[in-house]
Amino acid sequence: MCAVVGIFDSKEAAKVAYYALFAMQHRGQEATGISTSNGSSIKTVKRRGLVTDVFDEEAFKLLQGAMAVGHNRYSTAGSASVLDAQPVTASYQLGEISIVHNGNLVNKNEVRSRLIEEGAIFQSSMDTENIIHLIARSQQERLQDRIVEALEAIKGAYSLLILSRHKMFAIRDRYGVRPLSLGKLPDGGYIVASETCAFDLVGAEFVRDIRPGEMVIFEEGKKAPRSVQLFEPDPRICAFEYIYFARPDSIIEGKNVYQVRQRMGRALAKESASKADLVIPVPDSGVAAALGYAKESGIPFEMAIVRNHYVGRTFIEPTQKMRDLKVKLKLSPMRSVLEGKSVVVIDDSIVRGTTSKQIVRLLKSVGVKEVHLKIAAPPIKHPCRYGIDTPSYEELISANHTEEEVCEYVGADSLSFLSIEALIESIGDKQRYSLVSFDGNYFIQ
Ligand code: AMP
């Protein structure tokens, strides 16, 4: 979860960052922020709320300079404080820095305890603050070396952008769990962003993905960025980016997310065919996979569930009571299309089972005869510790129940999931992926 963006050597860096964050709003809606450097100081605006609510003309008057970093924060239960908004900034021996981070550190608590013992004072619950403390306390002379020392002390998933008064650093962990791409702006500057959909909005040209374990350094006065391979790459991009997180028009590691999702739908049709009158997606998350399923099976596709776009994602409200209500506010099935029909319903994933149960109930309430629920992902059996907000084992329905039990719980006539093998094949590479939610292989310990 979360989106990061960095802008280098562009006239209106803050505005470009703003549009990029707007394009990546789906990656986090709780809080947003931008820091800019004008070469002599760093300024920051950050607040809870959506991109369009937080930044106004006054904010842009403050956010001057040709360099910027920005962040959209995804909500996790219980951390609603503005102190948990990013960028995280600090003044230290060498000046000011500002950091944005997408990912999750697995040794956060050890590092934090050690830093506190050594006298550090923390302002937030964010693991990003660990990184800034480690940089500030390093004895190295150059910022670049301080960053490297800090990174050597942390373990986990991170796509990071660090802004100083004269430089910007873009870094991806050696596994490349979270995406990060480099683009060229129309005015000759550079953009680094979590997803390429941000490039499309600001007219940037895709250059390449930042490599796992790589640090790209942008320096004032030097046009071309420098690359340093800090850690040996062991690529394992998160499969969930393709399943659910990323916007369909983004290209991650050379693969268009929409096309990957269609292949998942096709694979689902091959693995688990059902006789039905219609294929219908759960909008928006199941649309591409449902199209793939319909093409492969020959069963007609209908957008028979209408989504109200003015309600946030179901996950935003952490309490169970609100989640149930939100599903109903969000999705509405059309009786005239559905009554008396047998339908294949496609969604991207089952986490707690709340959404699926509601959908089946809604469909039956408008007279659907049979609901064959098909999920374009394998069962989620393990919590992700590398940056996706999956709940604990107790709450993950597939961690505690067989597929038959889940089917019974959600009230469907049949339930199928995509196999892990078909998922990998649909993404379409021989390379390895982060599949922890499905196989429990916690490769960063
Ligand atoms: P649930 O109702 O708990 O089973 O949630 C399942 C739905 O939440 C799926 O249909 C997805 O569209 C969506 N979803 C899956 N993973 C996440 C996530 N990490 N954050 C927010 N929404 C998610």
From TrEMBL:
Which family does the record claim for this protein? Answer: In the C-terminal section; belongs to the purine/pyrimidine phosphoribosyltransferase family.
How, per the record, is the cofactor bound? Binds 1 Mg(2+) ion per subunit.
Question: Which cofactor names does the annotation list?
Answer: Mg(2+)
Lineage start: Bacteria, Pseudomonadati, Campylobacterota, Epsilonproteobacteria, Campylobacterales
What Pfam families does the record tag this protein with? GATase_7 (PF13537), Pribosyltran (PF00156)
- Keyword Zinc among record annotations: no
Catalytic activities: 5-phospho-beta-D-ribosylamine + L-glutamate + diphosphate = 5-phospho-alpha-D-ribose 1-diphosphate + L-glutamine + H2O
The record, for SUPFAM superfamilies, names: N-terminal nucleophile aminohydrolases (Ntn hydrolases), PRTase-like
Which gene underlies this protein? purF
Q: Which residues form the Glutamine amidotransferase type-2 domain?
A: 2-221
Extract the signal peptide range: none
Pathway listed: Purine metabolism; IMP biosynthesis via de novo pathway; N(1)-(5-phospho-D-ribosyl)glycinamide from 5-phospho-alpha-D-ribose 1-diphosphate: step 1/2
Which domain of life does this protein belong to? Bacteria
Q: For binding Mg(2+), which residues are annotated in this chain's numbering?
A: S285, D347, D348
Q: Which residues form the active site?
A: C2 (nucleophile)
NCBIfam families on file: purF
The EC number(s) this enzyme carries:
2.4.2.14
> What UniProt keywords apply to this chain's record, in alphabetical order?
Glutamine amidotransferase, Glycosyltransferase, Magnesium, Metal-binding, Purine biosynthesis, Transferase
Functional summary from the UniProt entry: Catalyzes the formation of phosphoribosylamine from phosphoribosylpyrophosphate (PRPP) and glutamine.
The molecular function GO annotations come to: amidophosphoribosyltransferase activity
What name does UniProt use for this protein?
A: Amidophosphoribosyltransferase
Q: Which HAMAP family match?
A: PurF
